[in-house]
Amino acid sequence: MDETETSTRKSGHSILNCMANSSGVSAPRELILIGGGHTHVLLLRELGKNPLRTVRLTLVSDVKDAPYSGMLPGHISGIYSRAEMQIDLPRLCNFAGARFIHAKVLGLDLARKQVLLPDNVAPVAADLVSINVGGTPSMEDVAGAEPWAIPAKPVPELLRGWQRAVATAPGGMGPFHIVIVGGGAGGVELALAMHSQVGHKAAFTIIHGAPQLLPGHNSGVHRVMSRLLEKRGIATIMNARVVEVVADSVRLDDGRCLPADFTFWVTRIAPPAWLAESGLDTTPDGFVRTGPTLQAINYSWIFAAGDVVAIEGQKLPKSGVFAVRMAKPLENNLRAYLSGNSLRNYKPQRRSLSLIGTADGRAVASYGCLAGRSVLFWHWKTWIDRRFMRQFQNLPVPFSSIP
């Protein structure tokens, strides 16, 4: 944590305590947001426009710049700069009248209602907590994956790995191999984006554990993407799992050994281990179990949203589309909880539009049973992504903010 942030937090506590003691008025209740995911950045923006008057708001995040996942493949393919796809969290907090604490959350003390930070930082007291942290691709069961594979999340780690790959790629055609583990929409879009930059220097292979790429999408999308990957010379291996990663190769469960100068891991995500270790009710794979109001099953003062949540009775894909749509229901329910009013159930959309960039000025649209690829869909995707990011640019300083 930065020294200025630590001192600001301590002085803020002192000021609030003095105000409470001298005036007899209770100090504001503490709402702690853990993580700067898509749901929380939209929540902060709304709270900047319509503040919670009797609440002190704090965001705790281990990064200062939150990447927008929708623009990541475009950044890798050279369309967007890094700055264009990142949200400045301290600046957003300033707009929302919130404290920003740059630190990694280590856990929760549920009995004391505290958010636990590194040893040199005092725990943060909480009356209400909302969790919107991202996961990382699950690699712990694969030998050699953690030291040698490059996970798709956190994004800074992916980008560092990609920069190494670009710098290492030979100047001409040669035995340079990039393996992407995971054939979902994220893995395929990432492969196409990377191929657009170094495809003339490297051989690409996507390894997927199911019989079909892009699970959850319709057969039209499967056909379009399969033809496109074949045309680009990107090999695909289906119904196979990587069981070992070493410096220059990966070994599959059928015994095959494939050359891999760089291995990118884009499989299903795993949530932070501290969630289950804190005593929250979680699924067997560690996601926070909540009711439809987004409240944790066993602690009503804890809310969760985005990829980290497992809502009872709902099976949602881990997608930014759903995380974005949770922002307003989360805001409404936080306000209702604080005011003692009834909370409402979050009702996810039945269908969602997916626009998957193909790194050639086109995108594939996937909606229900409909599929297509065109320049128009790419312009549509670009318009949506840029519109999302404009919400966090040129934010005015609020007229009033909580100390």
TrEMBL record:
N-terminal signal peptide: none
GO terms of biological process kind: aerobic electron transport chain
Ranges for domain FAD/NAD(P)-binding: 31-326
Pfam families in the cross-refs: Pyr_redox_2
Domain of life per record: Bacteria
Cofactor(s) it depends on: FAD
InterPro entries (UniProt xref): FAD/NAD-bd_sf, FAD/NAD-binding_dom, NADH-Q_oxidoreductase, Pyridine_nucleo_diS_OxRdtase_N
Family matches, as NCBIfam families: Nterm_to_SelD
Name of the protein described by the UniProt record: Selenide, water dikinase
Organism: Nitrosospira briensis
Lineage: Bacteria, Pseudomonadati, Pseudomonadota, Betaproteobacteria, Nitrosomonadales
